[in-house]
Amino acid sequence: MEASKAGQRSSAHSSGASQKPLEGIAGLVQNWRNDIVAGLLVSLIALPLCLAISMASGFPPFGGVITAIVGGMIVGPLCGSQLTIKGPAAGLIAIAVAAVEALGQGDTSTGYRYTLAVIVVASIIQIIFALLKFGRFADFFPASVIHGMLAAIGVIIISKQIHPLLGVKPIAREPISLLLEIPHSLVVMNPKIALVGFTSVIIVIFATSLFGRLARYLPGPLAAVLAGIGFCLYFDFNHAHAYKWYSLDYSVDARYLVDLPTSFISGITLPDFSRIASLISIEYIVLFALIGSLESLLTCKAVDALDPWKRKANMNKHLLALGFGNAVCGLLGGLPMIAEVVRSSANISYGARTRWANAFHGMFLLIFVLALSPIIRLIPSAALAGVLCVVGYRLASPRRFRECKKIGPQHLAVFIITIIATLQTDLLMGVVIGIVAECFLSAALGAPLTPLFVTVPNGDKRADGSYHLILPTACTFGNVIGFKRELARAEQSPVTLDFSRTTFIDHTFMHEVREVERDNGAKLIGIEKLDPITHHRSSLRRASKRKFDLLAVFS
Length: 555
Known about the structure:
four-stranded mixed beta sheet; 12 strands; 3 domains; 60% helix; Transcription Regulator spoIIAA
């Protein structure tokens, strides 16, 4: 993943980071030079992504910039995580655009204002989640379902963005129908617009090869946008005109460019709460609150692993700040925000040391919007669509399928089931169906049904000072929360994990075990009697094969 690559790039500055940075104002005074540079460089990545994500979500382009400014300048200093960057993310595009379409019933402007009201109410639910200390429930969801959900989001992004990349307005609205409409859009594409879109894709994919070391300071999305501005000036997109291509007539005009408000104040849109009690609104309130919270918490976990000083985010404080920020965004006309993994990992690789880097990132975006609006209005929407098509591909690339297959056929099966279910229904139902499939396949592969969600028994401290934890019969995703709670009681003591009674360990739980083994040097007892189904370190393990082996079905 992008996050792991960033972790490798950050090793240079982490190796010399022996002293943990201070926090609060003292941290700002101590680290402002590092953080201001990181914030500036991340803002160069964030600006085109904010515009692209907002337009893809059915929001005005300015809505995404509002979100990143609020996420940086307001939420950043209050958040429970040190190095995450807050802003609009591709993972919520599918929910946002569906909400605008469903609530507006064909009227995008009205649907946008209804969706803002939904975001405000969803943010209140996120605050309640934080007060109830629900941050720990990020550990509940099976890894296969999370991977499947993200891949489905990637497919949805591609299905919706390939058409504006080609300069075509599609007829279909659902992801599968949009994918089937791609051949027609290729036939009727606008050549000049498609040239901008395909150039954007090529630049983002091959940025490192094209720019070498300069790519560190000229990220692919920014380079794609600059190239798009060049095309805009060359083809004179600002003035409507017709042209011929192989005897066929086409036209270009300012409709293909980013539309920004004349001032910051005029870009603020107030929510409309008149339909907030409708069933459709309630559905999207739940989706924004659950999926937004889950994605952000998972990103925090990933970024914690990359932090050179191994600081751990306060998940409940993070969720509280996130809810507050989303309420502000909804009231101002912005998209919902989450902690975003690509920008967060870039933040670390650029040498950020404290949460003030996020604040500087928001500050620079505000300066860009105020000072560079005439230039931003020259960005073709096809260039932004190209950036998002690459983001979608990376979420749903064939490599994701190969990685799941290496982990095990059961993992791959749930991954694919979640993708199909999400594309056929929505994100919430896709996740629910994925969890049900995970439980069914675990049971079919030998996991005892009763202890799938039992509490992990209490550990005890031994005379030698070690913390001994006896694991239950079945160790699955449903036991991870209790498992982590018990590990927290060990504090700094050496940990022994006893699997003598265990007959089944799924991939999600096994991944957590490997994390504890790597980070804390935990000793594993009895795990050798459980057979892994593949050579992957975190592969599902079970005591013995059954007469009817479901693995043969998925192999």
